Please model this.
Amino acid sequence: MMAAAKRIDQLGGVPDFNPEGLATRAASEYGDGGNLVEMVRQNLVAERLVIEHYQELIRFFGDRDPTTRIMLEGILAEEEEHATDMHDLLIAHEGRPFLS
Ligand SMILES: [Fe+2]
Model:
């Protein structure tokens, strides 16, 4: 998220690193896990929520701010990799896709 903080700074804003309130600003919820498989499931759901959030942000910025849009597209690609990794772990464990 340093890229986002740097971009906020470039735009004249002040990045908010205060952990207090992070949960209220997050696109996903903090899960309490349970066992490892459940933690991977929860992480996959969270990754997919974050992917949807970045897709919305990318549409919002569109041509209004191409630099921010390009930065977000890079983050989106990383989040899609995370989701693929979690999905692959679940397939390896359960032998079938989780969520379609
Ligand atoms: Fe992620």
Notes: The chain is about 70% helix and 0% strand.
